[in-house]
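Hi support team,

I'm opening this ticket because the web form for multi-chain structure prediction keeps timing out on my end. I have pasted the exact lines I submitted so you can reproduce it. The total is 483 residues across two entries, so I didn't expect it to be a heavy job. Is there a limit I'm missing, or should I split the entries? Thanks in advance, R.K.
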Amino acid sequence: MPTEITVLLIIIGAIALLVAFWFIATMNMLRRKEVKVGEAESGIDVALTKRFDTLTKMLDTVKGYTKHEASTFENVVKWRRGMPEDMTLEQKQEFMQKMDQLQADINVVVEQYPELKADKVFTNLQRSIMDVEEHLQAARRMYNANVSRLNGKIVTFPISIVAAKIGMDKKAFFEAEVQKRADVKMEF
Amino acid sequence: MELQLNEYQLRKSKSERLGLMSLPLLVLGAVLAFSGTEGQQIGFYVGLFLLAFGIILMIVSLVRFNTVISDFKKTFLKDYFSKIIKDGDYRPKKGLDPLNVYECGFLKRADRFKSWDYLSGEIDGISFLSSDVHLQKRQVYTDSKGRRQTKYVTFFKGRLFRFDFNKNIDHDVQVLERYSPSDGKRYRKVKLESIDFNKKFKTYSTDTQTAFYVLTPHFMEALMKIENNHPGNLGFSFKGDHMFFAIYNNKSTFPIRPFVKIDEKLIDTFKADVELVYELVDDLKLNKNIFKEDK
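Hello R.K., no limit was hit. The queue was backed up. Here is the completed structure from your submission:
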């Protein structure tokens, strides 16, 4: 006949086991969501690289028409080395903003050269860039949707306890527009 | 147009009158033939004669009715659609090929396949084809007396459209109200950022990012609007260069029923059905070819 203490110990052991299982399951769930965020972030990288490549091609075409205005694009020539690797999310946002600026500059120049607008290669590149931007938006939305779900879990009790134990923090969103900060200087 | 419609209406009402005339003959004939007492041979034969005459009239009426409808669809409607739709091709007896139907990826293979009222053309530079489709599955069951019985159960009756799609996609995306993918590919369920959209539709894709690429916030809003405006069970799928749209509403798109006048009002209801195509092209901005390169 088991004594009362034995029964109590079994109950406590069972509860501890349940808690341990729940902890592991929750931890795995959070890790899976974190992996999804990571995958989505790599989607952003792919889209940014694509956009960078297409913009470079556009730049080459524009330069063919506007040799005397080459100085307009001087500051982007250093991007020739390609998209910097191992960028943080914040740096990626800055990089995206710089590409926005480059594109705006190209658009201003294009307005002055009607023959450029009629160039088939250039119009195809314009379409490509729109498509690439759609891909970038999709990657950004997917990333933010995953971050939103992960953050939602992280702040919910009692999952928040597991998240704190394994050192998982809320992830930052990838904003469409980054506020300009004077103290940040990017060199590509 | 009115003159032509009147002509069809006249022929149609003549055939309907013939059908109406046959009814009292059928009733009277049946009464005389089957209710007479023994020895009333004349009543029986007169009844039989009236019944036969009534049946012949009814058959003639039906044949005439079907001929009028067929003529109306083959000539008038065909001509009408070719006028309001660029390269409009309407064929009442033809339907979509089963391969086109199953290509959408969410309509299962049917044991009984029917398709009719084919309409294709181009709207704002977007090619489309469509037809009514009726799909049935065979069900074998055992009745209360232990006998095996077979029946055909409808799992889709409505219209299917196929449009050119303006984005380049390498993966498949399906947005479905009640169906589920049935083409055997490995789909993942995708949760988009719109809670309302996720409540209304289930989204499946072979690649999550492609789902986000196809379903922009504007696109999701447009799909919700289409869903609100069109009762029925909707399904959208995006494959390669095409977008498929299916609406399961248990209806024929261009029906001409007995005792319903062939007039401009009827034509307007058909036109409203065609306007759905315009609505899809406009709302989903399929006509904005800003993504594909010129060939």
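A quick check on our side: The mean pLDDT of chain A is 79. Let us know if the file doesn't open in your viewer.
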